[in-house]
């Protein structure tokens, strides 16, 4: 790459030092220009011709799905203007960060992203049971808030943030009070790589070969009245029609505002056939996998379902 090459922009949940930033750097290194955003929704909204790439957290191995992400994946623009083009996983080791000199018994508020607070529930209830938890847009934003001047509502000398220990090396005046405070030692978060096109060429290949994947959104078609639900295909019928291997399913209320009408975010994996190795599958031509998935989506539509391709990788 020449020195003055224009790098594609990648939107991520900031400020610097978030897990999303680390996961993005692990995969993209210096091949992109990083553009920090305040919330996961801002990251999603930043995906455009100006910033054709983004990374958003999708699921944690102990606390489960990132609801904000799933709610973005059910929006009509996903699968139309924004696509999932890859995944990457990061080991998450949380620490308790404080203003230099603050002791555990002084902490009245614990600030962090909802996911990090959820991943450290046992630590908080065992070690700082009287502390209130305060949701912040990201773990790094929580650490940064410790450096603000005291207000009527919050004294930073009575607060702690849950974040990565890397953050202590980024912002001056903070120190790590406890390390490895997540409830499960093996704690991983999986991220989706977003792009403006299904085949964005600037995504570096994953380090380990894995079978081809796809993400689709399924639902029974938009019904005029809740009563129609009885004739609509069930999730079992939708999956049978799809005839592809589903490896993950998340359910969210649909945007039709019909009570209990849901959308299903279904992750698919290409089956290994005789003679295939995971490596050869990964190298298989993407168009063939896209055709297989599209044929499955057509079968879902034939039985009265709605089926949208949200991404392939
Ligand atoms: O706040 C951050 O550091 C993030 O990158 C977000 C996020 C998440 O939403 O899951 C990412 C990984 C961890 O699970 C905790 C928080």
UniProtKB/TrEMBL annotation:
EC number: 4.2.1.51
Annotated metabolic or biological route of this protein: Amino-acid biosynthesis; L-phenylalanine biosynthesis; phenylpyruvate from prephenate: step 1/1
Catalytic class of the enzyme: lyase
Database matches in CDD domains: PBP2_PDT_like
GO CC terms of this entry: cytoplasm
Lyase listed as a keyword: yes
This protein's record includes keyword Amino-acid biosynthesis: yes
Any GO BP annotation: L-phenylalanine biosynthetic process
Pfam families (alphabetical): PDT
Keywords tagged on the record: Amino-acid biosynthesis, Aromatic amino acid biosynthesis, Lyase, Phenylalanine biosynthesis
InterPro entries xrefs: Chor_mutase/pphenate_deHydtase, Preph_deHydtase
Molecular function terms from GO: prephenate dehydratase activity
Domain Prephenate dehydratase: 9-196
Protein name: prephenate dehydratase
Phylogenetic placement of the source organism: Eukaryota, Fungi, Dikarya, Basidiomycota, Agaricomycotina
């Amino acid at each position: 790459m020449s020195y003055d090459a224009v790098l594609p922009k990648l939107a991520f949940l900031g400020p610097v030092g978030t897990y999303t930033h680390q996961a993005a750097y692990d995969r993209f290194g210096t091949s992109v220009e990083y553009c920090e955003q305040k919330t996961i929704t801002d990251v999603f909204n930043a995906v455009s011709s100006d910033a054709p790439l983004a990374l958003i957290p999708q699921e944690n191995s102990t606390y489960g799905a990132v609801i904000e992400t799933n709610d973005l994946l059910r929006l009509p623009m996903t699968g139309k203007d924004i696509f999932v083009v890859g995944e990457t996983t990061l080991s998450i080791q949380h620490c308790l960060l404080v203003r230099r000199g603050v002791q555990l018994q002084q902490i009245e508020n614990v600030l962090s992203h909802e996911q990090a607070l959820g991943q450290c529930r046992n630590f908080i209830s065992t070690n700082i049971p009287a502390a209130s938890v305060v949701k912040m847009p990201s773990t790094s934003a929580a650490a940064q808030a410790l450096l603000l001047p005291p207000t009527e509502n919050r004294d930073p000398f009575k607060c702690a943030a849950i974040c990565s220990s890397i953050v202590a090396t980024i912002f001056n005046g903070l120190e790590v009070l406890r390390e490895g405070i997540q409830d499960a030692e093996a704690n991983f978060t999986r991220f989706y790589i977003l792009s403006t096109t299904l085949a964005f060429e600037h995504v570096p290949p994953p380090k380990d070969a894995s079978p081809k994947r796809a993400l689709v959104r399924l639902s029974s078609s938009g019904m005029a009245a809740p009563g129609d639900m009885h004739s609509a295909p069930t999730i079992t019928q939708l999956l049978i029609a799809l005839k592809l291997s589903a490896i993950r399913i998340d359910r969210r209320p649909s945007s039709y505002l019909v009570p209990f009408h849901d959308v299903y975010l279904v992750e698919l994996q290409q089956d290994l056939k005789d003679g295939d190795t995971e490596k050869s599958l990964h190298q298989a031509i993407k168009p063939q996998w896209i055709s297989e998935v599209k044929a499955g989506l057509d079968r879902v539509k034939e039985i009265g379902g709605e089926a949208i391709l949200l991404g392939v990788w």
